[in-house]
Amino acid sequence: MLFQARFGLMLMMTVAIGSYCATVRHEEQDNNPKVNPLSELNGDQLEVRDLACVHRQQPTDQYATEDTPFNKEQKTLNEFLSALKSAGELGKMDFVGTCSPETQSSQVSHLVQSVLQKQSGLKGVHATEDIWDADNEGGITLTLTFPKHSLPAGPASVMLLFSVNPVKGDSLRVQFNSQSIHPNTQTVCISESTRFLIVTGGWSHGHIHLKLKTMVETSMDDNRPKLSVSELKEVLMRKVDSSSTMIKPVLLFLSDLEEPRLKHHRIPQDERLPSRTYLFLCELQKFLRDILPQSKSTTPQDDPSAVSLDTLHSLPPLRLGVSSTESLLSGLVNSSTPTVFVFPQRQQGLQTHRVEVTLDSPLLSVLRMRLDEAMAQVKQQEAGRKMIDRLQKLTELSALSPDGEDSEAATKDHKEAQYRSVLLLKALQMVLSNWESERAQRAARADEDGPSASNQCHLQSLSVSLRKFFLEPSRANINNCEGTCGFPLNNANNHAVLLNSHIQSGQPVNRSLCCVPVEYDDLCVIELESETTNISYKTNVVATKCECR
């Protein structure tokens, strides 16, 4: 019998020296907590709200454990390190709750290897309080509170460690789904040999409260009843020795690693977990690839008709960042210029990509408004549920922080969120523009088949294939001019009028009037590199008006 135990895990973390949400048992209290929420993105099952504190309400069923003495809790970390050493010698990882060697999380494996090599960089912070709530719908919520002292002042690779009770008989399979853990879906199995569970999170920093709500699906023997709150609690929180005191989860993080390759707030390049900007860019590339028309060839490089983007005349590139001029930022937000994105050949190249922009208050308001409008237009189309879900993830990952954040970390996060919001706006504008071109092409084909089809000079949609690795989209609509130039000439200049009159009188000419583009739009190219973003404009690419010349 398959049943579901819905387990909502809300993890309140302060990952810097700063204010935090105090519960009724905390001696310290911050009257003005600052929040940078990290949103969860799992469709209809997840609900995320921006909270400065989790206010304790009266649940249907509630359990709270008393604080565990430090010397007993320290034993958990020592046991974990000892088990890691044994695993490194024997090559066995069953104690950590992985379901099989084949499905073992690569991120957990990487962190385990890092811990074995550099134990001095591993630090642990135990939860000071845990609150278990059972709601009327059968859901279970665990709220963990961590102290603000002894936490990393800068970014750190973090993971949540549970010291669990082994499950006799059939194993208990638990699946975590959340955008704030990496990988986003993590499955663990609790069996007779399981002693610990690890849930790896993204690396975070500075004055952040993180609310993580995760749905867990459990599958057990047909004869086993549904787990109650106390039973689930006993599984996930092992008791100290034979006492009644339960071991609270531990927040582990790798920090202060003195290595030659230290960069980005003293975290080694290969130890840092993906930032929200990296996750956003990966999701953005998937979104564009799925929703936009692509070249028929396997890659644009295989298309003999493809034109290299680098051969087009371009204005000097501008770097997008904190030093960007107001005119550049205003142009990106207010303009609907056709746009393409250039991604690195490998997504891993974006793991160090951290770009900030600073928009003044009026421009930021315009950005919010235009984003809302573009979002509404995209949702009106029949894009499919998959695309709407991707769009929701992008929206959450680019969500702007509330006004009033004044700490250094909060300001940094806010600037990065502005950058992601600008990219999302340009991507949505690009999608809407492509859809409009497709509609124009369908309308033009319908007119050609109609009885009153006109052959006068007019603008016609035309798509061409562009060549550059990982260009989204790989095709661009540049339009073209088609039709005859006969009497009467519409919007023609004096030269065209006189030339046409000369031709109509039967006088010989070497060149007849031609239907040609007379006005163009530039093509905005947003090139994403490992640590920077360059904006360049390919001039006179998209025809916007035709006349006879």
UniProtKB/TrEMBL annotation:
GO terms for biological process: development of primary male sexual characteristics; germ cell development; gonad development; Mullerian duct regression; negative regulation of androgen secretion; regulation of gonad development; regulation of ovarian follicle development; sperm capacitation. Residues 439-549 form the TGF-beta family profile domain. Its main location: secreted. Keywords: Differentiation, Growth factor, Secreted, Signal. It is found in: Secreted. It comes from the Eukaryota. The keyword Signal applies. PANTHER family: MUELLERIAN-INHIBITING FACTOR. This is Anti-Mullerian hormone.
